[in-house]
Design goal:
16 strands; Elongation Factor Tu (Ef-tu), domain 3; 7 helices; about 25% strand; disordered C terminus; alpha+beta; about 325 residues; 8-stranded mixed sheet
Length: about 325
């Protein structure tokens, strides 16, 4: 979609010789335009919910909420959080889990540590510990297995014997790696403020427990309570991620004109639905008009955006 959007933008600009937008400028405007539309989805979803509550929203083909929800859910992720030491965990970031968190929907806890040990033999998608007693320890399908050395996580597919577990993913590549196994019985943690957690912990009646865990958010750090929740594999975030930054990549021909080339390793298309293509064009044109100081281009982009608003503004 990104090439079609760029061609449309250049076509509008070149029609009246308004100027040329370089690939680097286009990529910058494209990233900002995508982020604007992404944030608008949340406000639009809120409007549709309010409209439903007021019984002014339609159903069936007039159901506006469902397509918005489906678009947002393409950005919904679930990842185990990286432990930073003690009961501190890192927020989902590009470095730790491969995505930056836009909004934390909920935090899931797996507080019950069932067993730990060291792998004694290495086979693909298996955990083998000759000194273990997995069956009598109550290990069952779905329990969570963490490689202590690498931090990789998998789940139990089947308990083959007291000493052998079949895993869904191959997380043990080196014989002798340590492991921990947590019960799959999940608890949803309550979010509390940093100021409130001190008072909660000071009372036996209100302090968080493994049955009723809590967490606080301090900058890019999530702290889990009780403090026994301190290993990777015990805390899982369900969150909406930021859309990936779009990038129109190209090769330069002999005449110096850039030609679109999506085979480049850093190529990234827009992550919004195809039907948002025209919205991206108008928003990018607005940025272009400001850049080249042409008010007509800016006004054209803004006018087109205003023309598209009645779908949701009428429900305000």
């Amino acid at each position: 979609m990104i090439n079609e959007v760029r061609n449309a933008v250049l076509s509008v600009l070149n029609k009246n010789n308004y100027g040329y937008i370089s690939p680097s400028d286009f990529n910058l405007y494209a990233a900002n335009a995508q982020m604007e539309l992404y944030e608008e989805y949340y406000s639009s979803y809120n409007k549709t919910i309010n409209a439903e509550n007021l019984r002014s929203s339609g159903t069936d083909y007039a159901d506006i909420e469902s397509p918005i929800a489906e678009t947002l859910e393409t950005f919904l992720m679930t990842d185990y959080l990286v432990n930073l030491g003690s009961n501190s965990f890192s927020m989902p970031t590009l470095t730790t889990v491969g995505n930056d968190s836009y909004y934390i929907l909920k935090i899931l806890c797996y507080p019950n540590l069932l067993v730990s040990g060291n792998e004694t033999s290495n086979f693909i998608k298996k955990l083998i510990d000759s000194s273990a007693s997995f069956l009598s320890d109550g290990i069952v399908e779905g329990d969570i297995v963490a490689n202590i050395r690498t931090g990789k996580i998998s789940t139990v597919s089947e308990v083959l014997s007291d000493t052998t577990i079949l895993l869904i993913d191959n997380i043990f590549l080196t014989t002798g790696d340590g492991y921990r196994i947590f019960s799959s019985k999940v608890k949803e943690a309550d979010k509390v403020s940093v100021g409130k957690i001190t008072m909660l912990n000071s009372s036996l009646y209100t302090q968080p427990t493994e049955l009723f865990p809590s967490y606080t958010l301090e900058g890019q750090t999530i702290k889990a309570y009780p403090s026994t929740i301190k290993f990777k594999g015990q805390l899982q975030a369900v969150y909406f991620r930021y859309p990936k930054v779009p990038k129109w990549t190209y090769i330069t021909l002999t005449n110096g004109e850039p030609a679109f080339d999506q085979s480049q390793t850093d190529y990234q298309d827009f992550e919004l639905p195809n039907e948002d293509g025209y919205k991206l064009v108008t928003k990018i044109l607005e940025y272009c008009g400001i850049s080249i100081r042409e008010t007509e281009v800016t006004q054209f982009g803004m006018a087109q955006q205003q023309h598209e608003q009645p779908t949701f503004s009428m429900q305000q």
